[in-house]
Amino acid sequence: MTKHTVLIFQKTNNPNTRTWTEHANITAALEAIIGMFEKQLAQTYPDQSHINYQVGDLIGFIGQCKEFVALIFDQKVNAYVPRDKAWIQEKIVSHLRLKLEKSKKLASHDMGNRASSKSYI
């Protein structure tokens, strides 16, 4: 089941910074937020070819925005349910944690495959 998601955000007090994006599901919306943050980092540090950041930096990016709301379609009530910055921040942390766990499992699996393939040589 997909949950169509609309992100509405305003970076500063200037109303001209208001914008919105729409996504097929919550995961796509979270990835878009990460992309927005990474784009801002690239613009802030144009001479850096590789930029490292911590989850707290991403959470701070969301918190510093004047407004940041996710509207998530709920089929049960046939309406969009608003979610605030704190909810978005929690979902970002959970999403990144899940991605990290998956990448560790893949790395572990790859190492296991390499070890087993070497044992046959």
Automatic annotation (TrEMBL):
The entry assigns this protein to a family as follows: Belongs to the E(R) family.
Output the lineage of the source organism: Eukaryota, Fungi, Fungi incertae sedis, Mucoromycota, Glomeromycotina
- Name listed for the protein in its UniProt record: Enhancer of rudimentary-like
Q: Which InterPro entries match?
A: EHR_sf (IPR035912), ERH (IPR000781)
* Native source species: Gigaspora margarita
Q: Which Pfam families match?
A: ER
